[in-house]
Each structure stands twice: as structure tokens, then as C-alpha cells.
Amino acid sequence: MAEYQLYCFAQSGNAYRAALMLNLIGAEWEPIFVDFFNGETRTAEYRSGVNEMGEAPVLVHGGEKLSQSGTILFYLAERSGKFLPRDEAARLEALRWIIFDNQKIGGNLGPYRFFRNFAKPLGEPAVLEFLKGRAHGALAIVDKRLSRSPYLLGAEPTIADVSMTSYLYYPSEEFGFDIAAQYPNIGGWLGRMKALPRWGHPYDLMPGYPLPA
Length: 213
Fold this sequence. Notes:
By secondary structure, the chain is an alpha+beta fold.
């Protein structure tokens, strides 16, 4: 058995953060497929045995079982010494961007993508436009930040950058617009992250793609 196990599924940007981090640090890990679209996370078995919050990802490491992608990123960075901010001030700054990402990028772009592609029935146009507008506002903030430095905290990538990748490598067809083309500083940063050793696409790192017809 691999040292780490990750409960995840290919369409989850939240799970991708954790899967990418495991790959980037060279960890020995294996994915455990979560059948989200058939309601596995809503079952009593999942909530009692895996995560009481009914969410993925969940990282299992020995006797530890961790949920929430930001927590997982800090745990892996501290254990590996990789992508860890250099000092307390930098850790707080990384946490600031991780929270912003979860609330404003993933918190809007994730539901927008879900309601546009996967919900049954698909989302109402007014709801989609609202989420899309909120996502564009947040992406513009990140793009401006990346105009000043190669990575969110400066010259080197940290867990803040790993977190921010969450939904940004999924195909542009799933969003109806090209994030990298529309936000050139984000596009350049995505290229730098992709060039890191052991980078992987979410649909390659995690099980569950493509969805059954």
C-alpha cells in the first residue's frame, strides 16, 4: 500500500489541489475513487467512515485522516519541506491567498462549472451569469497580483500557488471562455506551474474521467 491515500474524483478542483501537491512533492500515493455524481458523499457510510462533512478530498496517512484541501496542503508542505512558505509572515500570506482561492475562485468558478456541465438539470442562466461575473472579478485580482511576481508570494512557488491551480487547468470548453488567454498573467503562471517536475493534469491524476454517458 502507498504511504498516502487520497479520496478524490477527477472533476473536483478541490481534490486536484491535494492530488497535484502529492505528485509535486514526489509522494507515494494512490487515489481512492469517490463516486460523487452518484451520491457517495451523501451516504451515511461515507460520512461516518470517511468525512463527516460529506466532502472530498480526504487524505489518509497512517493514523491521520485529513479533510479540507488547505489543511492537506499545509500538512504535506510541513512534512516534505516543499512548497512551504519561508517564515511566519509568508505562511500567513499563503493562508490569505488559499482562503481567497477557496472563497472567491473555487467558490464561484467551481459552482459555475458544475451547474454549466454536470448538474441535472443544468443551472439557470441568471445563476450562471452571476457566478461567472463573480469568478471574473476574482480572476482579475489574481491576474493583477501575478503581474508583479512570477508566483503569488514572489520568486518561488508555494502551497498558495498549488491551491490556486484548483480549477484553472480544466478545459476551456467547460467554462465557455479561455482563462489563460483572457488573463495573460494567469496564463504565464499556469505555464510555469505546468513546467514543474511531476506536474499532472487533473484528468490524468485522479479517477472518474470521462463520466459515463
